[in-house]
Amino acid sequence: MAQTLLRKSVAALARTREIPTPALRPLDAVVAELQPHEPVHALRPATLARTAAHFVAGFPGETLYAVKCNADPRTLRALWDGGVRGFDCASPAEIALVRSMFGRAATIAYMHPVRARAAIREAYGRHAVRRFVLDSVAEFDKLRAETGAKPGTLDLIVRIAPPVVADAEKPLHDLSGKFGASAADAVALLRLVRPYARNLGISFHVGSQNADPQAFARAIAHADALAREAGVAVEVLDVGGGFPVAYPGQDVPPIDAFFAAIKQAHAACHTLGNTALWAEPGRALVAAGGSVVVQVQARRGNTLYINDGVYGALADAGVPGLRYPTRLLRASAADEVAFDFYGPTCDSADHMKGPFVLPGDIREGDWIELGQLGAYGAVLRTGFNGFERAHLIEVEG
Ligand SMILES: *Cc1c(COP(=O)(O)O)cnc(C)c1O
């Protein structure tokens, strides 16, 4: 009995006491000591928390972090420290992870519009998820059958396809082909779902790394027109993710320009002007907080053979051909040169054409830091060809 009490009070203490975090060291010092021949994922919790705090403070509504972008617990913890309390999850594993870390203090929205029936039961029954997205009548039927929820107890968000744009204006990852109800289907679905929903919402995703604030404004106006046509009350307008970050060679407006465009378009709505706003940022919250250190294994002309590639953390440097900011981890006075990279696997598709700009005297054994890799980096690593191993370290912000 006494022992149980003691254990309980120790556990309570551990929960409430400020646990001092060991001071983090700069990345360069860690690499100098480690001399790593495998890729190193560097996480900067302070940068993550600061970026999250800026988004939470600037976005005029609720921020739901899109967990698929980086589900590392240290990343989730840093976002929490920055004030993020909502999570956009797409799978039972993501939901279980968020609940295990933050309990009921976290708000979870299950935003994948096509789910296994067992996944719906697990989310609703075991993890008490009450927010669900849908883009079809079939999914509505599944949600009702598998949750058995009484009318007026679920928040149901109808995902619509954003308005069609010209190819030249398409974002890095256009998601409109896979999910989202057409205009006519959305109107019918809003009417069908209304009597059953506690809160009814409309959501869209303008495509990842969308550099145009007006893409959000246009999608909001489109959602407004559909709500008006449906003639039903709507409580939530979810503007999705897609907020961009700066990669070399891309001109990206500051995040505040997106908040301003969203506020303005929301205020101009006929029907949705009083709805609560939600956002589901992924990349914009976590890209800057992570980088990858790679080692040069060979140099052939202006091509570098490095120890990470498109089957690892650099997936987006293959197709669609993203470039990352680069930094050589030693002093060099040489002029900068444009390089392309090959990754470590034997597949010729493991090529990153860049250009990646680095000092011209770069040589075998050098380490390079590639930035903006906190999003869609480490989580895309595969075991192909035996190159799954990597270090993960936390470093100074
Ligand atoms: C991937 C995804 C996001 C996050 O997108 P980013 O472009 O990383 O901001 C948000 N919502 C949904 C539904 C997604 O699938």
Structure description:
This protein is of the alpha/beta class and 397 residues long. The strands form two sheets. Strands 1, 10, 11, 12, 13, 14, 15 and 16 form an eight-stranded mixed β-sheet that branches. An eight-stranded parallel barrel has the order 2-3-4-5-6-7-8-9, surrounded by four helices. The radius of gyration is 23 Å and the shape is elongated. Mean pLDDT is 92; it is low at 1-20. It has helices spanning 2-16, 27-34, 45-58, 73-81, 92-102, 117-126, 137-147, 183-193, 213-230, 255-267, 283-286, and strands spanning 40-43, 62-66, 86-89, 107-110, 131-134, 154-159, 197-203, 236-238, 276-279, 290-300, 303-306, 326-328, 336-342, 351-359, 367-370, 391-394. Pyridoxal-5'-phosphate is lined by residues 66, 68-69, 88, 111, 205, 208, 240-243, 280-284.
